[in-house]
Specification:
It is found in: Cell membrane. This protein is mostly helical. The chain has 16 helices and four strands. It has one domain: ABC transporter involved in vitamin B12 uptake, BtuC, CATH 1.10.3470. Helices cover 69% and strands 2% of the residues.
Length: 375
């Protein structure tokens, strides 16, 4: 192997000295500039589309741009943004997690039961979180160590977790949370900044929910991990080529296991925040959420083939879907059309990310519109 590599290098050097075409003449070695990377990324164009949609809707319906509606939109998409961060980690590995919605239902029922038994709120939240992490660990074990397809494993967990939620709750709503009920509601209903005679925020600044701020903090943490840690480099390597990553010493099974546990963790956090916001627990919480979370992740630029995804894309994809839903309601369009719009955007997002001649369709289109000058 070493001799063949040396011969190839020597041949290239000889060709260069002889004035013949060399490999570097055909393969560009210069990396993209920061500006080129930004404008060729899917999250950038989703952001542009989101801004355009907001401007259009504000012009058509002035109430769309009010601080009250902004607060409502951010509160509604924040739980999906939180879960999309976990889903992004799983999709980067080339997997998928269909169980996040059912995990939410199980977590909220477990936490709700401990609250109705008059346990302190932190014990209830810890038990709910533990149940969610246990589901993620089961998913991760069967996917990473047994080698089963993630679709099959998480589809099975979707049914198991939902069934357990129904059984544990006796198919009833839980709402008598005991002495710590005010604390639980304060966690889920907290807002900042506040509008009030003793608060500093003017009324044109929206009151942003605890769900939104939790999403922001998690997105910053995940974004930092994606850009500055070896763990993230291993994660992307697994999604790019799992066998090659394994041969280079990457602990593939352990990292894939962690990915599914983290996805369950984000679903659990979103569930506990919604428990506080709603002030009650129902076993149907999160039903159908998995499809919207996957849609937000894909629209935000994550590749279902693995190896691509960003924290910003997860958040902006979630925001985009909620703004579309809100815009349809504001425009008086039947909300049943929301599914059609979401489906169309999923197909478009996957189409933009498809590879054509080694480049995504988006990058190839930009290359045609903005060709490099020959030097």
């Amino acid at each position: 192997m070493a001799n063949s590599v040396q011969e190839s290098i020597g041949a290239q050097e000889s060709a260069e000295r002889a004035g013949q075409p060399a490999m570097s003449d055909f393969v560009p070695t210069k990396e993209q500039t920061a500006f080129q990377r930004v404008i060729s990324s899917q999250p950038f164009w989703v952001t542009i589309a989101l801004i355009a949609l907001v401007i259009l809707m504000t012009a058509m319906e002035p109430s769309f741009g009010t601080s009250e509606n902004v607060a409502n939109v951010t509160r509604n998409f924040a739980p999906f943004g939180i879960m999309a961060l976990g889903m992004t980690v799983v999709i980067i590995t080339g997997g998928i997690d269909l169980s996040v919605g059912s995990i939410m239902g199980l977590v909220v029922i477990v936490a709700g039961l401990f609250l109705t038994w008059h346990y302190p709120w932190y014990i209830a939240f810890a038990m709910g979180l533990f149940s969610g992490l246990a589901c993620g660990a089961v998913n991760g074990f069967f996917v990473a160590y047994v080698g089963m397809p993630s679709f099959v494993v998480t589809l099975g967990m979707l049914s198991v977790a939902r069934s357990l939620a129904v059984v544990f709750s006796a198919n009833q709503m839980l709402y008598q949370f005991g002495p710590d009920a005010p604390i639980v509601k304060a966690i889920g209903q907290a807002k900042w900044p506040r509008h009030g005679p003793e608060d500093w925020a003017p009324h044109w600044i929206p009151e942003l929910s605890s769900q939104f701020w939790t999403m922001v903090v998690l997105a910053l943490i995940v974004g930092f991990v994606f850009n500055f840690t070896a763990w993230a480099r291993h994660l992307f390597a697994i999604g790019g080529n799992e066998e090659a990553a394994r041969l280079t010493g990457v602990p593939v099974d352990w990292i894939k296991f962690q990915a599914y546990v983290f996805s369950a963790f984000t679903a659990s956090i979103a569930s506990l925040l919604l428990l506080g916001y709603n002030g009650s627990a129902i076993n149907a919480m999160g039903q159908g959420y998995e499809l919207r979370v996957i849609a937000a992740t894909v629209i935000g630029g994550a590749s279902l083939m693995g190896g691509a995804g960003t924290a910003f894309g997860a958040v902006i994809g979630s925001a985009f879907l909620e703004v579309i839903r809100n815009a349809l309601l504001m425009a008086g369009i039947d909300s049943n059309w929301q599914g059609a719009f979401v489906g169309a955007f999923i197909v478009l997002a996957v189409l933009l990310g498809m590879q054509t001649g080694g480049k995504s369709i988006l990058a190839a289109s930009l290359a045609v519109l903005m060709p490099k000058k020959h030097r």
